[in-house]
Amino acid sequence: MRKILSHDPVSIKENLRVSVQVFRRIITLMPEKRSGWDREVELSVFLYWLAAGTSYRVAGVSFDIPRATVKRICTKMLSFFLDVVMLQVIKYPTGNELIEIGRRFCNRANTGIFERVAGAIDGSHIRIKCPPALHDQYINRKLNYSIQCQAVCDSNNKFIDICAGYPGSVHDTRVMYNSPLYYRRLYPPAGYFLLGDSGYPCSIHPIAIITPFKETDRQPLTRQQKKFNNLHSKARNVVECAFGQMKTRWRSIFNKDLELRIDNCVRVIVACCILHNICIDENDIMEAEAIFEIEEARNAEEWQDVEYQPIRDTGEGIAYRQQLVQRMTD
């Protein structure tokens, strides 16, 4: 671990899963210390713990410190990320930032109709090892135990809103209805809208979400509706990409059941989202592995098929979507 603590770029990337630039950026956010472990040591232990799949034992052996000390450091660092860093790196864009986000969404889909898109919304299921007493709450329709993480992403694959912690048995739409984003009308601002898959309602109030057209046996899609859906999908997949990139970076966490207390599972998920944004800011991009891209795409398709009673497209939402289709054909 001497190479890590000496800021060796290769060793940091291999063992801590972030670039030396990201490591140094986080150090600048940490308060100065007068006693105890150095900031570099605490951050190294924490990132190594994440990279090792949240194993206190493995991190302790690697740094030659007691397991209890590793746990204490990681608990402290989780609080630091969620209480201090999160407010600085997961935040709603405003002003010119919104204009730039809309421009990039248009570029992604090669169309001019998405200049008022402020983000895309979707959810991901994070597998956990569930306590037997909570079986019914956390088992999802794929018969895995999971915690849900709802996210809104901008056009650069960055998280701008996170709502993590709902059990896997809860439908995506119910998570949205109970999220502060929705019931406090936090985002997007007036005049802008989010892109969501067909598991969400196409509506304008309380927050604007535009979804693709749904095809039924009685009502097949027209050529223009299919074209709109294709453009919508190209722009919307930023959320799948973001989750895929995050899960690739921390594959030791996300390719197995997360074995922590439920509340700590949630904290780890949010911390990984925070780190994802810092990595993007520092141009430390880790392309999603195919297995995670396929998983996110499949999850999105499967959860769209699950009916949840409150899903209702509104007249205003349908009318706004039709305006976008009309602009597409003009």
Automatic annotation (TrEMBL):
Chief location bin: nucleus
Localization per Swiss-Prot or TrEMBL: Nucleus
Keywords tagged on the record: Hydrolase, Metal-binding, Nuclease, Nucleus
One Pfam family, short name: DDE_Tnp_4
Entry GO terms, CC: nucleus
InterPro entries assigned to the protein according to its UniProt record, in alphabetical order: HARBI1-like (IPR045249), HARBI1_dom (IPR027806)
Highest taxon above the source species: Eukaryota
A single MF term (Gene Ontology): hydrolase activity
Obligatory cofactor(s): a divalent metal cation
Family: Belongs to the HARBI1 family.
PANTHER family registered for this protein in UniProt: NUCLEASE HARBI1 (PTHR22930:SF206), PTHR22930
Protein name in UniProt: Uncharacterized protein
Species in which this protein is naturally found: Aedes aegypti (Yellowfever mosquito)
